[in-house]
Sequence to fold (235 residues):
Amino acid sequence: MSIGFIDSGIGGLTTLCDCIKAYPHNDYVYIADTLYAPYGSKSKEFLTDRANALIDKLKRLGAKAVVFACNSCSSATAHTHMNGIPVIRVLPHPEEVLKQTKGKALLLATPVTINSKVVKDVSHERLTKAANDCLAMMIEECAPDFFRLKRYIKELLAPYSDYEAVIAGCTHYIYLIGIIKELFPQFKVCHSNGETVEKLKEFSQEKGQGRVDIHITGKGDKEKYYGIIDSLLSV
Fold:
């Protein structure tokens, strides 16, 4: 079974790695759509059109299902099927985190995700929603040395130091868990990759070579970017 993955860059690799560990016999086709990064400030209409175009490409490459390994892209559409293919979306679920905690929780995400219906519909006195329009690209630019962002993360999260949980509402942010736990060991850092892995179960297979095929759309230094991707996939 070949599964397609879509993200604006390296963020979705966090989801892909978890899926590879759970279902090592699947074949995976990953598109890093760096040509249009970042997704977090794009319109819903643009992201929907772009997703359709990339799904067409993934279908030509043999994908039988597609994972939107990006909260921004996932938030832009509510469809479970697009272009005749099943779609699995990565979405933050703050209501689940609130059920598991007693203190305050911070949902940190891109503007597209924060302004989406799936997030706007969740309102709770213990939940704070914070949009960040630059962190995903900062993560892209410093990869794979994410600890270069330590000072920025400290200043970003300092106002929430009395909170119990931080919800990573962007797959890029998962790379920062080590930094967050070092700076704020009291935080419970949550994300939705586990739910995505569970949803992919029906598309898994028990035999196969488990190949990973990476495609980059941008025109930058692709050799360097492939090197970064290889290093992240090997962690």
Strands lie at 2-7, 27-32, 65-68, 81-82, 85-89, 105-109, 127-131, 165-168, 188-190, 212-216. The chain has a mean pLDDT of 95. Residues 65 and 135 are 29 Å apart (CA to CA). Residues 2-91+194-233 form a domain with the Rossmann fold fold (CATH 3.40.50.1860).
